[in-house]
C-alpha cells in the first residue's frame, strides 16, 4: 500500500478495502464493527435515546493536547453528556485529501481509537471518501453518537431559574488559544494545551449526587459568553458573571490580550457549564472537584430576574459590562 492517500483509496476497490482493513478496522475493532455490514445492529439499554452529530475541520490537525481524531470523539461524547446521556456508540466518517500521508492518518486514527477506548464507547460504523488534492485540507471527520438518558432525567437550557448558580469545571479558553497559538507559530512563555476531554464520567458523578441540576452545556464555539446567552434566552432569565471568579490561566489571558481576544468568547473542548439550585451548589462543586477534570471547578455566576435574555459581567471594580452573543467567527476552524 502506498504511504500517501490516493484517489484509488476512495474507489471502493482493493485499495479502499486495504485502507479500511489495515488502518480503520484494526484501530476501531469491536464485535459490531467487525461484522462489516451496511449498518450496525446494536442493543439499547432501558431509557431514552440521545443522538448527536458533529463535523471536525480543525486546523492544524495536530495540536498541543490532542489532534482532530481525539477531538472528534470527545466533542460528540460531550454533546451527548450534556443531555445526561451515557454515550454508547459512535460512527466515524472521513473525508481525506489526496496526498495525505498515511503515517499522519494512522496517528489520527490511533488517537481516535484510544479516546474511544478510554471513554468506553464503541465506534461501530464508518465511511471514507477521498477527494482530489486541493478540494479539502488534509482530513475532515464527522462523528455521530448515540447514548441513553436514564428514565426521569430532564435537563435543558429552558430550565434555569432566578437564584440558580452557574458552575464551571475548570479554566476557560484553553482549547481555542492552543489552536490559534499553534496555527500562528506564537512562541509564548509556557505552553498552552487544549482541554479536549470526554466529560461523561464527570457529568455522571454530578448527576448521581445532585439530580437537581437544571442545565448542562459545553461552551465550545462562541465560548462561555455565547453559551450562557443561549441559556438566558431559552429560559427567559438574566445571567450575571463575576469577573473575580472566572478561572483563566495567566498564559491564556496573556495570549488573548496580545491578540485582542476576549477569553469568554474563546472555545473550550473539555468544559461543562452547570446551572444548579443554590441549595446544592456547594455539594455540586465538591463532587466536581473530586474528578480529575473538575479539580479547578468554581462558581462563576448567578441567574437573575433582571435583564431577561441577557448576560452581564460584574467587573472587579463593581461595574457591569454586557456580554452579547458572539457575532461572526472569532476563531475559524477551532474544532
From TrEMBL:
Gene3D superfamilies recorded: PurM-like C-terminal domain, PurM-like, N-terminal domain
Domain PurM-like C-terminal intervals: 161-311
Q: Which domain of life is it from?
A: Bacteria
Q: One biological process GO term for this chain?
A: protein maturation
Q: Name one Pfam family in it.
A: AIRS_C
Q: Where is the PurM-like N-terminal domain?
A: 37-149
Query: Where does the record place a coiled coil?
Result: none
Instruction: Please state which protein family the record places this protein in.
Output: Belongs to the HypE family.
* PANTHER family linked: CARBAMOYL DEHYDRATASE HYPE (PTHR30303:SF0), HYDROGENASE ISOENZYMES FORMATION PROTEIN HYPE (PTHR30303)
Name of the featured protein: Hydrogenase maturation protein, carbamoyl dehydratase HypE
Amino acid at each position: 500500500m502506498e504511504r500517501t492517500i490516493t484517489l484509488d483509496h476512495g474507489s471502493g476497490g482493493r485499495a479502499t478495502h486495504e485502507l479500511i482493513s489495515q488502518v480503520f478496522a484494526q484501530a476501531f475493532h469491536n464485535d459490531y464493527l467487525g461484522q462489516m455490514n451496511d449498518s450496525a445492529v446494536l442493543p439499547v439499554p432501558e431509557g431514552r435515546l440521545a443522538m448527536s452529530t458533529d463535523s471536525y475541520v480543525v486546523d492544524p490537525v495536530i495540536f498541543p493536547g490532542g489532534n482532530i481524531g481525539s477531538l472528534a470523539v470527545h466533542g460528540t461524547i460531550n454533546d451527548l453528556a450534556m443531555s445526561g446521556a451515557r454515550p454508547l456508540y459512535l460512527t466515524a466518517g472521513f473525508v481525506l485529501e489526496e496526498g495525505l500521508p498515511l503515517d499522519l492518518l494512522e496517528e489520527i486514527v490511533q488517537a481516535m481509537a484510544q479516546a474511544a477506548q478510554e471513554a468506553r464507547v464503541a465506534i461501530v460504523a464508518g465511511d471514507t471518501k477521498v477527494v482530489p488534492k486541493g478540494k479539502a485540507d488534509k482530513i475532515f471527520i464527522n462523528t455521530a453518537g448515540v447514548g441513553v438518558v436514564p428514565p426521569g432525567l430532564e435537563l435543558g437550557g429552558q430550565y434555569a431559574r432566578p437564584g440558580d448558580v452557574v458552575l464551571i469545571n475548570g479554566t476557560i479558553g484553553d482549547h481555542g488559544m492552543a489552536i490559534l497559538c499553534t496555527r500562528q507559530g506564537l512562541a509564548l512563555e509556557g505552553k498552552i494545551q487544549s482541554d479536549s476531554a470526554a466529560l461523561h464520567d464527570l457529568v455522571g458523578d454530578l448527576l448521581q449526587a445532585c439530580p437537581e441540576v437544571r442545565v448542562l452545556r459545553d461552551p465550545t464555539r462562541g465560548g462561555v459568553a455565547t453559551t450562557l446567552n443561549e441559556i438566558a434566552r431559552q429560559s427567559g432569565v438574566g445571567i450575571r458573571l463575576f469577573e473575580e471568579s472566572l478561572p483563566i490561566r495567566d498564559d491564556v489571558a496573556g495570549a488573548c490580550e496580545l491578540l485582542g481576544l476576549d477569553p469568554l468568547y474563546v472555545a473550550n473542548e473539555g468544559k461543562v457549564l452547570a446551572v444548579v439550585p443554590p441549595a446544592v451548589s456547594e455539594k455540586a462543586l465538591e463532587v466536581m472537584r473530586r474528578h480529575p477534570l473538575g479539580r479547578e471547578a468554581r462558581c462563576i455566576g448567578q441567574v437573575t430576574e433582571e435583564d431577561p435574555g441577557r448576560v452581564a459581567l460584574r467587573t472587579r471594580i463593581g461595574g457591569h459590562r454586557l456580554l452579547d452573543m458572539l457575532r461572526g467567527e472569532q476563531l475559524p476552524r477551532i474544532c
